[in-house]
Design goal:
The structure holds 2 protein chains of 2 kinds. Chain A is an alpha/beta fold. Chain A has 8 helices and 10 strands. Classes of the chains: A alpha/beta, B alpha+beta. Chain A: Belongs to the ABC transporter superfamily. Macrolide exporter (TC 3.A.1.122) family.
Chain lengths: 233, 436
């Protein structure tokens, strides 16, 4: 599903050159639920941005669903993002003056579906996250957990094969976080590949596979309890 | 997608009503100022007779002082002497020839209770009505014989007909003017060319005269001259002395169908002047002109310099307003960074973002244009109040101007929106993840 080999990413300013990813290697198979952990500044978000085609990289290869993405132009990357990837953000990133229906509609609009198909997909996604009866509400009328559910519905509406989640429970209390994690598990069981960045060892433990990132490099963790303390902070 | 973008634009405008209101106001002020001056300039310079403005030519002969031109640089006089105008009229070398002059005369209405009044009179030749396509309500112009035989006939304006005959068909009736009875042969329908192109030597935006009479009656009745009379040589005493003098007070138009005919007429007037030179007149070098309607309007500076300066100033003002709008749009789109990067992250291309924001800008521009039209109407009312009746005819918005205003508002707001929109497109999609 996702294959990164020797991916290198450098951020340059006039004075400083920061190597965010160094020979980053990772294989994620179809249907996996991978948790990515690591200390702040280790390169987790950079990895997620590159995986989600939101940023380019200096060298190495990245194959997404068998396609080499390094040679794609901005437009082609947008199309691929829209068709294959769903995003879940820590702060939900819902558009405040659009209803839940219209928020879930956003990626579908760029997909070119007709109105009937969009409606069906939106209703189905909101049904799945348990918010079908609140389609006309604005995000501000929902709790944080419910807002994250809407964001998940938005990510799922286009039926992506690959879901990228960046601290999806970071802004939620324990109860809500638990409910969102259950939803992600359910989605994964239906076949969607999920890569989740988190600081929370308990959440990471719920994923089938754990990756630890430090200094822009990957190391596999087979025992989450062995995760360095810095990550748990 | 257009409907979707339109919906997003309206939502975005609603989301920041103060910022949106400021932008609409800035554009409205600029458009209002521009449209006010554009309207005045447009109506001042509009072709008053587009169907034949390139076939009507104003005749100038340089009969002026051998030592000084009539006007710098080497401009011939803007009118003709009686001698030259009548000679050209009688020669009939053009398809139509119109000699004319302004005059005034007392009208004595037949009604018992009506008081005599002074009416403006245009003394002219019979081709006036055909050459200038004047519309007739009743009757028509007079005949060639009426010109030659100096008949007491008149064509009156619709207003005069309303005043003296209650709007009835007055053809065949008589009006007592200057102590003589004139037979009405025609009543003009509403005819107010703006500017009054057929005589630009005096009030260029005045209404046409109330009565029209054969030009030869000037000599017959010794009618007074009005308008501009310029002399470089003192005329002999008496009315005949004035008519035979070098004083210019008469205008001459000719209708010429083709370039060849124009060249032939130019040759004719040049030869005429050469002939006059042998009689001791026209001491200046040959300097005769034939100017079509638009050339003559330009020569006579129908669009005043200050109106043109105001036009440029108003465009500068629009530019300042647009610069303000650019700043406001930048602020607005910067506030939408999160939404833009989210849209990019979930699949919007740069083009999608560009079109979405350009449509939002166009909506603001359209609203600014409509508000600007309202301000332009206020501005034009202000001009009418300041400048009185003359401004009435150069300060009203027509359909073309409304369309121009809306197009100008749209184009200028889109131009103002290009840079902020480009900046919006350049927002990296990764911002959606980073700005948490």
């Amino acid at each position: 599903m996702l294959s990164m080999n020797n991916v290198k990413k450098i951020f340059r300013t006039d004075l400083v050159e920061t190597h965010a990813l160094n020979d980053f290697n990772l294989q994620v198979d179809e249907g996996e639920f991978v948790a990515v952990t690591g200390p702040s500044g280790s390169g987790k978000t950079t990895f997620l941005n590159i995986a989600g085609l939101l940023e380019t990289f200096e060298s190495g290869t990245y194959m997404l669903d068998g396609k080499d993405v390094s040679k794609l132009n901005d437009n082609q990357r947008s199309v691929l993002r829209n068709q294959k990837i769903g995003f879940i953000f820590q702060s939900f990133n819902l558009i405040p003056d659009l209803s839940l229906f219209d928020n879930v509609d956003v990626p579908l609009r760029y997909r070119g579906f007709n109105a009937a198909e969009r409606k069906q997909r939106i209703e189905q996604s909101l049904e799945m996250v348990g918010l079908a009866n609140r389609m006309k509400h604005l995000p501000s009328q929902l709790s944080g957990g419910q807002q994250q559910r809407v964001a998940i519905a938005r990510a799922l509406a286009g039926e992506p094969r690959f879901l990228l989640a960046d601290e999806p429970t970071g802004n939620l209390d324990t109860k809500m976080a638990h409910s969102v994690m259950e939803l992600l598990q359910e989605i994964n069981q239906k076949g969607t590949t999920i890569v989740m960045v988190t600081h929370d060892a308990t959440l990471a433990a719920q994923a089938a596979r754990n990756i630890y990132v430090r200094d822009g490099r990957v190391s596999e963790l087979h025992d989450v309890s062995a995760m360095p303390e810095a990550v748990n902070s | 997608m257009f409907q979707y973008y339109l919906k997003l634009a309206l939502l975005s405008i609603k989301r920041n009503p103060i910022l949106s209101g400021l932008m609409v106001t800035a554009i409205a002020l600029g458009i209002g100022a521009c449209m006010t001056t554009i309207t005045v300039n447009y109506l001042m310079s509009a072709d008053p007779i587009p169907q034949k403005s390139d076939k009507l030519f104003y005749v100038q002969l340089d009969s002026w002082d051998p030592n000084d031109p009539f006007d710098e640089p080497n401009e011939p006089p803007d009118q003709l002497t009686w001698t030259d105008a009548t000679n050209l009229l009688k020669a009939k070398k053009a398809t139509r020839q119109v000699m004319m002059a302004q005059s005034v005369g007392a009208v004595e209405p037949e009604q018992q209770d009506a008081k005599p009044y002074m009416a403006s009179i245009r003394l002219t030749s019979k081709d006036f009505f055909g050459a200038f396509d004047t519309p007739f309500l009743y009757g028509g112009g007079w005949s060639d014989e009426a010109d030659v035989n100096r008949e007491f006939v008149t064509v009156i304006s619709r207003e005069t007909n309303d005043k003296l005959f209650g709007g009835q068909n007055s053809v065949g009736k008589t009006i007592r003017v200057l102590g003589n009875n004139f037979k009405v042969v025609g009543v003009l329908d509403n005819w107010v060319p703006v500017p009054r192109f057929y005589d630009l030597t005096t009030d260029q935006f005045a209404e046409p005269e109330e009565m029209f009479m054969p030009i030869m009656l000037k000599e017959e009745l010794e009618l007074p001259s009005s308008g501009n009379t310029n002399c470089w040589k003192r005329p002999d005493d008496g009315f005949k002395g004035f008519l035979n003098s070098e004083c210019v007070n008469f205008q001459m138009w000719v209708e010429l169908e083709s370039e060849q005919q124009k060249q032939a007429y130019k040759d004719y007037i040049d030869n005429y002047v050469k002939e006059q030179k042998t009689l001791g007149r026209f001491a200046r070098p040959l300097n005769n002109r034939l100017s079509d309607v638009n050339e003559w309007m330009e020569n006579q500076e129908v669009v005043a310099d200050d109106a043109q300066i105001m036009l440029w100033l108003s465009f500068m003002f629009l530019l300042v307003c647009l610069l303000n709008t650019i700043g406001l749009l930048l602020a607005k789109f910067t506030g939408k960074t999160g939404e833009i990067s989210l849209r990019r992250a979930v699949g919007a291309s740069r083009k999608d973002i560009f079109v979405q924001h350009l449509i939002e800008t166009a909506c603001i521009g359209l609203a600014g244009g409509i508000a600007g039209l309202g301000l332009a109407m206020l501005g034009l009312q202000g001009i009418k109040v300041l400048y009185g009746s003359f401004a009435d005819r150069v300060s009203s918005l027509d359909f073309n101007l409304v369309i121009i205003a809306l197009i100008l508002a749209l184009l200028s707001s889109i131009a103002a929106g290009l840079y902020p929109t480009w900046r919006a497109c350049a927002i990296a999609p990764a911002r959606a993840l980073k700005d948490q």
